[in-house]
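Let us work through a complete example step by step.
Step 1: write down the sequence.
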Amino acid sequence: TDRLVGHDVSQGIIDPDDSMRITDINDRLGMDLKEYTFTISMAMECFEKGILAKKDTDGLDLTWGNTEAVITLLHKIAKREGFGNILAEGVMRAAERIGGDAPKFAAYYKKGIAPHVHDPRADWTMILGTAVSDFGSFVSFNKKSTDADATVKTVVEKGSHRQMFDCLVLC
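Step 2: predict the structure and record it as tokens.
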């Protein structure tokens, strides 16, 4: 679901086939879904607001829903080519480099790591895990809880395992 939410809501990609095609390309390029989703979405918002123009984006039309522009950007980000070199730095640093009001449209945690594309408010374990994590967002192995003690216990016991799980690309 992260993939569909990332493309659909964040980038205006409404065709499921396009979303799956983008996901496949992203996976083959080995890039982090949430980071590139928020980074490209920020760039699209900047384009829509006039902060970026085609001259800044290597001629790409970054209007919402432009599947081909997203695919082109994925390749440019992976190869650090042109505008993709700026976006390859992630949402926070890309927004800083773009300048102007771009940082207002950049969603990230702590040191610039993009959040999950789904809403964590009902998952206290994810919220606490993300707050104390040194690597960004934290997924709680479906141990959702609204009990404070159980939440802390899960984060303490599973935190380092979760980091290894993410490093092994098993998510």
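Step 3: interpret the result. Residues 148-167 form the longest helix (20 residues).
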